[in-house]
Every structure is written in structure tokens, then in C-alpha cells.
Amino acid sequence: MDQSQFDQLVEEICAVQVTDSEMPLVDLGVDSLHTVALVMAVEDRFAVELDPDALADLSLTSSAGLLRLVHEQLATGANASAGS
């Protein structure tokens, strides 16, 4: 999934318009309930589990940051599967 598709997912789940993928979601008007819904949707869609503590990292609180985290989780999962 590319950034524009991920931004569309964020817009759909959080009812906001992503004008800058690097802008913190809170600055776009995303509240804590939308954040929880977004994390759940991302986990379901990508079959990954996001570390709640990682979301405390401000660099991950944007659409682009969240997508980077998903890609990292997918890469880690692929590496873990390859080692099995």
C-alpha cells in the first residue's frame, strides 16, 4: 500500500482530510477514539500488531509515520517467518 492509499484509509476511519502525510494526526483533528479505531483497522488490514508504546513516539503519530511502522512490522514478521 502506498502513502496516498494509506492516507485514504486514515481519512475514511478518522473522518479527516490528510493534507500533509507528515503532519501529526492530532493536528488534523484526530482524537483518541479515532486513533484507536485507526490502529485496529490497520492491524486488521495488514495482519500486524502495533506496539502501543511505539505510538508514543511523535515521529509515528502522522499518517506517514504510521505507515512506516506498519512496513517495519511487516518486514520483521517476514524475517521471523523466514527464520522458522
TrEMBL record:
The record's SUPFAM superfamilies line, in alphabetical order, gives: ACP-like
Which residue ranges does the record assign to the Carrier domain?
A: 1-74
Gene3D superfamilies reported in the protein's UniProt record: ACP-like (1.10.1200.10)
InterPro entries (UniProt xref): ACP-like_sf (IPR036736), PP-bd_ACP (IPR009081), Ppantetheine_attach_site (IPR006162)
Q: Which domain of life is it from?
A: Bacteria
> Per the record, a Pfam family?
PP-binding
Q: Name the UniProt key words of this record, in alphabetical order.
A: Phosphopantetheine, Phosphoprotein
Protein's UniProt name: Phosphopantetheine-binding protein
Originating organism: Streptomyces silvae
